[in-house]
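Task 17 of the worksheet. Students: predict the tertiary structure of the chain below and write it out as structure tokens. Keep your answer in the requested format; marks are given for formatting as well as content.
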Amino acid sequence: MLIANCKIFETAEHSGTAGYGSTAIRVSSVLITNTISRVTIFNNHIWKAAEASVYGKAPGGIIVGGNWTNNSWVEPVIIFNRIYNHGQDFLATHIGGIDLYENTTNALLWANVLESNQYTPIKAQNTKNPLIIGNIINGVHADLTEAAGGAGILLNIDRIALGDWYGGGIVSDNLITISGP
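Model answer:
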């Protein structure tokens, strides 16, 4: 699957209903068992002009995931995307600007630009062998705790290392700047 050259403007904020979220691009493989699905997300522009009406309600950017129960995996290539004013942290919904959620493997995140981030710009959780290389992250709010999204790149080692999921990965040559609220 290829998602390329899209312009996505003014994605909706979180609705305020617990258990629901909003995001610009969501790719999941939850119904097919024992598979690896491949997706390339290339050269998309995801833009929200203003910060969310309530901090944390901004939409998530790109979220990719499979399904642990079905042994369904997604192998994403996410390159040359530009994401502005995204990242959701509201009512227990946590979606980064680029979010490797459940059951991703061999993900390549390369040369993406994430600016004015409202939550962790790059979040790798429940993933195996991520390659996070050469991304530019401009604006991680310095007043946030790590739990509230203050990290430029969040690798959730507790979840990556479950069972035989651990397989390494590389995080290299990323440029991250911190900004105030």
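Marker's comment: The CA atoms of residues 126 and 159 lie 5 Å apart. The longest strand covers residues 35-42.
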